[in-house]
Amino acid sequence: MTPPYLPPPVRPPSPQPPAAVSYIALGDSYTKGEAIPTEDSFPYQLAALLGKDYGLQKPLVIAQTGWTSDELIYQINASGYITVKYEIVTLLIGVNDQYRGISKDEYRKNFIHLVNQALDHASGRPKRVFVISIPDYGVTPFANGQGARIGAEIDQFNAINKEESDKAGVNYINITPISKQAATDQTLTANDGLHPSAKMYTEWVKLLAPRVVEQIKVP
């Protein structure tokens, strides 16, 4: 008996990998990931989290410990990447301005310049730029009894970068409340007694990643 004819099975197309999404991270020690392995810094954790499903590439990081806002401007200009365009840009800068006693007016001027540089990297798309607030290191052992003063000054610098971010229409990610949790949770601070641990950066990424995904999905 001849079996009935059965059409060949329909095989679903192989899933296509997501398009590559380029990423540049601008900042200082908090972007570089001082005192922890590079892969534990927030830019690398973000790329690892969003790489497979959303195509976010490992970041180009222009950041070093100790850089102030004007030093970051200089390094971006000197890097050779100033005209290169990226899909995602993060910017976190200001703690060393506060630490070195640079005036708030000078910081504001430099921060506006950096936001404009970030916008240029993002091809003028403000929603592809993510400003991250300055952590409050006043709660760490490094503060050595100066926590109240440091925290108040960090709040003032953050008020500036929040105001200017809002004016520019870029995303603002307020991680400062998370950083203050290090006052009662030592695991949120790296072994140097100052910088965030990988665990703290993971908490930052939990705030940042959903906002980045929203923008990656927008053509």
Automatic annotation (TrEMBL):
Any coiled-coil regions, as ranges: none
Pfam families recorded: Lipase_GDSL_2
SUPFAM superfamilies per UniProt: SGNH hydrolase
Classification via InterPro entries: SGNH_hydro, SGNH_hydro_sf
Entry keyword annotation includes Hydrolase: yes
Residue ranges annotated for the SGNH hydrolase-type esterase domain, each copy included: 25-201
Taxonomic superkingdom: Bacteria
Example of a GO MF term: hydrolase activity, acting on ester bonds
Keyword flag Hydrolase: yes
Keywords: Hydrolase
Entry-linked Gene3D superfamilies: SGNH hydrolase (3.40.50.1110)
Protein name as annotated: SGNH/GDSL hydrolase family protein
